[in-house]
Amino acid sequence: MSFSSEKNTEKLEKKAHRIHEKCLTIDTHCDTPMKMIKPGFNVRDEHTGPQSRVDLPRMKKGGLDAMFFAVFTGQKPRTDENYQKTYQLSHQMLDSIDSMLKHNSDLASLALKADDLARIEKTGKRAICIGMENGFPLAKDISRVEEFYQSGVRYITLCHSYHNDICDSSSDGKPAEHKGLSDFGKQVITEMNRLGMMIDVSHASDKSFFDAVELSKAPIIASHSSVRAVAKHNRNMTDEMIQKLAEKGGVIQICLLDDYIKEPDTTTVKFHEMKNLRKIYQTTFNQMNEKEKEAFSQKWEEVQGMNSADMPSVNNMVDHIDHVKNLVGVDYVGIGSDFDGGGGLRDCADVSQFPNITLELVTRGYNEKEIRKIWGGNLLRVFSEVEKVAEKISTNPHLASLKE
Questions:
Q1: Which of 98, 96, 25, 36 is nearest to 66 (CA)?
Q2: Phi-psi bin for 362: left (phi > 0), alpha (psi -120 to 50), beta?
Q3: Residue 402 has pLDDT above 70, yes or no
Q4: Which domains does the chain carry?
Q5: Distance between first and last Cα of the chain
Q6: Residue 179 and residue 195: Cα distance in Å, rounded?
Q7: DSSP string, 220-257
Q8: pLDDT of 212-261, one tens digit each?
Q9: What ranges make up the beta strands (E) of 134-207?
Q10: Spatial distance between the Cα atoms of 16 and 368, rounded to a whole number of angstroms
Q11: How far apart are CA 252 and CA 270, in angstroms?
């Protein structure tokens, strides 16, 4: 490398550092609560990957101001017993977040409103928001939407890898059950609008997405999805979906999961190992005992770590941001890592490495205003608009059921 190119690199790094420090940075999805309910895990301690990608020390190191902790529950057969077990598990995760915040009040605070994030950031603490990944714990009880809202949940990812009572999933191998949103799902959307909860369409089928964006009175989010035109995957969003999302003022939060960022090499051992593991997850995982599930999770992490040098990079990830910017503008894209739930890139393996994304954006010519939007401004705009819609509905309840 020549002296001039070294100087240029140093200049870009300094500029990226300055911008990153000034941004209100928000990551809209991590699955760390799954670790928090296990004995011995403390988010106050600094951990190492790939088994752990998020904790309070590394959030500070990476300049991450706010994180949405997901209350994740996998899909199970829709029996009364499973509804109850999943409902209890969701509350166990909520309790773990509450306990974590009480024990770390010097380092983190709960954010319930869009304005809370900037207020908490000014104190030097991390802002913790709560999302719910998979509406399965609602069962068929519409009152639970408000119950979870009162518990701090500020978005619900309508479904996960299988069809549920709310809508069809993008990943279920079975034919569509509802052909989009179910009647109950439509009630859920209306209730979330009323309360001021963000509607999250990550994992939803294409038809479920279009139903949700059409029905919702407020902008919606995809908390951890990427671009199908860049990496062909049914979990990613098509250009048509991104255009509709932007038309309604929503935001796609680019996910850092490898297959969503770059189409995998299907000839590798890793690809076939992951294919086998996914088949197990989709078939027999729910029948495993806790010890077997733990062994499966360890195997998953081992396989994910294979051939790490071949993993997608931040460069590949920013290709997705570029695509959204070129398609609809920079106002409709953000970042949702899916750390501790599969997310992680070669050069952004945990929250401490988030500045690498800012450096890549600066290198590509993004200005400070654009980077501020990507790192949190766009999500805050949606969060605020969702709250405003709820306020309008509270004064004019009939608005909740009217077509636009």
A1: 25
A2: alpha
A3: no
A4: 3-262+312-401 (3.20.20.140), 266-310 (no CATH)
A5: 58
A6: 26
A7: -EETT--BTTTS--TTSBPHHHHHHHHHTT-EEEE--B
A8: 999 999 999 999 999 999 999 999 999 999 999 999 999 999 999 999 99
A9: 153-157, 198-200
A10: 9
A11: 28
Looking up tokens 């904790």, which residue turns up? 55
DSSP 339: B
Question: Which amino acid, 230?
Answer: V
Say if residues 114 and 377 touch (Cβ distance below 8 Å): no
- Residue type, position 168, single letter: D
The two tokens of residue 16 are: 């990226």
Residue 117 contacts residue 27 (beta carbons within 8 Å): no
Residue 389, class by beta-carbon neighbours within 10 Å (0-12 exposed, 13-18 middle, 19+ buried)?
buried
Contact 139, 174 (CB under 8 A): no
Q: How far apart are CA 244 and CA 257, in angstroms?
A: 24
CB-based contact 277:333 (threshold 8 Å): no
366 to each of 111, 201, 334, 351, how far by Cα in Å?
Answer: 29, 27, 14, 21
Q: Burial, 298: exposed, middle or buried (Cβ in 10 Å; 0-12, 13-18, 19+)?
A: exposed
User: Three-class SS of residue 29?
Assistant: strand
Q: 68-78 in b/e burial notation, b at 16+ Cβ within 10 A?
A: bbbbbbbbbee
The residue assigned the tokens 């399965």 is 136
pLDDT in tens, 288-328: 888 888 888 888 778 877 767 789 999 999 999 999 999 99
Contact 206, 240 (CB under 8 A): no
CB-facing half-sphere around the CA of 377: CA atoms within 13 A: 13
Q: Beta strand pairing status for 251-254 and 333-335?
A: parallel
What is the Cα gyration radius of the chain? 20
Residue type, 28: T
- The DSSP letter of residue 182 is -
CA distance 370 to 381: 14
Q: How long is the chain?
A: 404
Residue closest to 354 by CA, chosen among 55, 54, 22, 64? 64
**Angular region, 170: left φ>0, alpha ψ -120 to 50, beta rest:** alpha
Reported as a pLDDT band with limits 50, 70 and 90, residue 404 is: very low
Q: What pLDDT does 2 receive?
A: 60
Beta strands per DSSP E along 146-197: 153-157
Residue 34 structure tokens = 């799954």
